[in-house]
């Protein structure tokens, strides 16, 4: 299997070079950029599988760059941030975040977890899931609502698919973190709530009164199998 291609975008040369050297030693194919302009040029030429993206750049923001990159491809985004609030990057489609200062082994662990989700879905070739007006195609990694394509980030897709393939099961946040992120997540579990909120805005007729993804008080979340029966 070919090595995954990772683009590292950070204006700090020390951090950029450190990540570059470390990931290259892990057998990834790595390229780097120091600002938004060069990042987009490298993005088009290099065609990365994943972008390690700093939140603060000299000519733009990581949030704007994340939106632009994911409007072009379904690339995975791992955000580097000094902020404690994960909502900043996650609401723009980032798949995960690492807070500076960070451990290189942790960074690699999270990269592996993100890339593994893509390999698993491609290898297993699962069937489409259909619930009323909602269709989930795990092979093409696409969601359709009433026949219209819904734009989800890679992690939003994986989280929705995890819930929908086992309708009626109540998932604890810790279980979703382990299942979707594929490692023991050491950050705050509210990262799940942020992504669930974003998914609801995109697929629910009324995000304040969700019919697909129900909140189970004191537990977590459940995909409601009865949604299909009612429609």
TrEMBL record:
The modification 4-aspartylphosphate is found at residue 54. Keywords: DNA-binding, Phosphoprotein, Transcription, Transcription regulation, Two-component regulatory system. SMART domains: REC, Trans_reg_C. One of its GO terms (biological process) is regulation of DNA-templated transcription. PANTHER family: OMPR SUBFAMILY (PTHR48111:SF68), REGULATOR OF RPOS (PTHR48111). GO terms for molecular function: phosphorelay response regulator activity; transcription cis-regulatory region binding. Residues 126-225 form the OmpR/PhoB-type domain. Gene3D superfamilies: 3.40.50.2300, 6.10.250.690, Winged helix-like DNA-binding domain superfamily/Winged helix DNA-binding domain. Residues 126-225 bind DNA. PROSITE patterns: OMPR_PHOB, RESPONSE_REGULATORY. InterPro entries: CheY-like_superfamily, OmpR/PhoB-type_DNA-bd, Sig_transdc_resp-reg_receiver, WalR-like, WH-like_DNA-bd_sf. Residues 5-115 form the Response regulatory domain. The keyword Hydrolase does not apply. Pfam families: Response_reg, Trans_reg_C. The gene is bfmR. The keyword Ribonucleoprotein does not apply. One of its GO terms (cellular component) is protein-DNA complex. The lineage of its organism: Bacteria, Bacillati, Cyanobacteriota, Cyanophyceae, Oscillatoriophycideae. This is Response regulator in two-component regulatory system (BfmR/bfmS).
């Amino acid at each position: 299997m070919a090595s995954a291609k990772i683009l590292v975008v950070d204006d700090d040369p020390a951090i950029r070079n450190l990540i570059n050297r470390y990931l290259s030693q892990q057998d990834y194919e790595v390229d780097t950029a120091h600002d938004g302009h060069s990042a987009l040029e490298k993005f088009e030429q290099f065609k990365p599988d994943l972008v390690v993206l700093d939140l603060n750049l000299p000519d733009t923001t990581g949030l704007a760059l994340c939106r632009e990159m994911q409007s072009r491809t379904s690339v995975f985004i791992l955000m580097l941030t000094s902020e404690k609030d994960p909502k900043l990057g996650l609401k723009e489609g980032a798949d995960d975040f690492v807070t500076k200062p960070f451990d290189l082994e942790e960074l690699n662990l999270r990269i592996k977890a993100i890339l593994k989700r893509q390999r698993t879905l491609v290898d297993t070739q699962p069937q489409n899931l259909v619930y009323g007006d909602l269709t989930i195609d795990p092979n093409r990694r696409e969601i359709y609502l009433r026949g219209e394509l819904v734009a989800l980030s890679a992690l939003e897709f994986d989280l929705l698919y995890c819930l929908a393939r086992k309708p009626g099961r109540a998932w604890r946040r810790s279980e979703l973190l382990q299942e979707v992120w594929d490692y023991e997540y050491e950050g705050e579990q509210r990262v799940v709530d942020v992504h669930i909120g974003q998914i609801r805005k995109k697929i629910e007729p009324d995000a304040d009164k969700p019919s697909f993804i129900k909140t189970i008080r004191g537990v977590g979340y459940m995909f409601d199998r009865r949604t299909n029966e009612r429609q």
